[in-house]
Amino acid sequence: MEGIGKSLMAADHKTNYHESGEGAPLFLLHGSGPGVSGWTNWSKTIGQFDDKWRVIVPDIAGFGFTEFKEDSKYNIKLWVHHLIGIMDALGIEKASFVGNSFGGALAIGLALFDPSRVDKLILLGTPAGEFVQTPGLRGAWTYEPSVENMRSLLELFPYDKSFITDELVKSRYEASAREGAQEALRKLLPKPKDDGVTMVRGFPDTSLVNIQAPTLVVHGREDNVVPPECGLLLAKTIPNADLYLFGQCGHWVQTEQSEKFVSIVRQFLEA
Prior knowledge:
alpha/beta; Rossmann fold; 11 helices; two-stranded antiparallel sheet; single chain
């Protein structure tokens, strides 16, 4: 099945991952949402970096084709522990991390809990501070698996809807329809309130100010999943951070603005 790669054990989870290239280790960390996996987020990006870096694309515990355990408490501590376990299993002491949305929050968690493991951070559409739950995040929780529902949900993500291909919808739907997949996802996202607003909380500025790693913050101006204000907060608070805001771009920066994205990330990593 598309998306299934190599396998290793980390944090007591049988872990699916993809690996390509040689050089300094570079992790590409996926976001959250129905049918998400490392492959769906990054399959078209791996080849843009594996000429110079050892690119690793894992499915984090509870997502994609990595094991989900009913009795595990999925939170940032477990996910960081899982990521460190993946690094240890692959013999990697220190790496740079490109994190998309949830993956960015995970990269921040690692940079705070064990800064010795982090070289550089690239944070795409990453939540931070506190904000009102967006239509995209609400839709991810309420989603019921069907091709039509998946297409409707994905239309909330990019600025240019032409990026939502039949192939993408089919791939994401099939992954989301696996037994227990949506129930697992609902344990990872805030449940929308029936009345009133639902707040989403990322790392606060009091934590972000402690990040030591050089950081590139990348955000789409028209992001309807994680508001651009989160990117601004990250760039204002992380001591050694730069911000690149893409116009006419939603939540999928690496796909919607692929050429520019690859160029600025390579420049940042090579500096």
